[in-house]
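User: Hello! My lab partner asked me to get a predicted holo structure for this protein. The small molecule is adenosine-5'-triphosphate, SMILES included with the sequence. Please write out the structure tokens.
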Amino acid sequence: MVDKRYLFVVNPHSGTKLRREADSMAVWLEQQARKAGLTAKAIITRARGHATDLAAEAAATQKWDTVVAVGGDGTVNEVARGLLFAPTSLGILPLGSGNGLARHLGIPLTLSAALHHLFECPSVVIDSATLNGQPFFCVAGLGFDAYVGQLFGQQPRRGLDTYVRVSMQAYLDYLPQRIRVAGRDTEIFSLSFANAGQFGNNAWVAPHADLTDGRLEVCTVTPFPKWYGTALTFQLFTKGLKPSTYISYQSLREITVETEQPTLVHYDGEPWQLDTGRIEVKIVPKSLRVKA
Ligand SMILES: Nc1ncnc2c1ncn2[C@@H]1O[C@H](COP(=O)(O)OP(=O)(O)OP(=O)(O)O)[C@@H](O)[C@H]1O
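Assistant: Hello! Below are the structure tokens for the protein in complex with adenosine-5'-triphosphate.
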């Protein structure tokens, strides 16, 4: 059955385009849906968390078949957490900075193609995961990636160019951190919990990740010499990251990590300063219906 009723949730703080064009985007989306013979409403979010309230209400009332996150992975996260275990589907129009989940799912990146795809494609049921109870859908982690997420969140402007600048700056001042996993101490550059394969912008941290296998791909990067940074970056952006002296993978349903101090983590690129040194990450199999 093709979905007929669409609620578009537009985040005016995603990427670079929506900041200027959220109002006209909302009008255009409703028009396009009407032209396609569909029922639709577009709402611009008023604050962080608003998208979750809208999605949760849609799931509870079943007034909408699909709630569409119009934005990046942060918006996808907010909408998706309101739809967990509901018959209502998540849709994605990737207008953020990284768009990791959309890219993993093969959703087109141009607006008109993504909208056409959204109206035509079926839905599939995928896994989600939690980090200390906080749902995530793409990738969560600690170390360098969390530091980049924090610096990025502090920038007045989003977008790919900001990501590149912030990542390079972070690489210069980031210090590795010590963690304990299963009674073993390790020094890490980063530790990533991948439900989907990439952070966004085609940075593939776990090219083999499968959204429907009931597992997380845990990627540990240990501190590496400067010369290896170039090779690592090349592999990351060519989907070629693989086990090496500095990189290892584990395919797990859950993992507990301990840190000496409460640490900074990220979930789907959103920074989060924990108030505990214990990090529990778990897969939640088959928990989200998504149009892809
Ligand atoms: N009305 C709003 N006002 C302020 N912040 C908002 C609002 N609605 C959503 N947000 C927040 O905006 C942030 C950025 O959104 P999002 O992640 O979609 O964009 P992005 O960071 O540019 O893209 P990506 O995550 O793909 O890199 C998220 O943290 C989200 O919670």
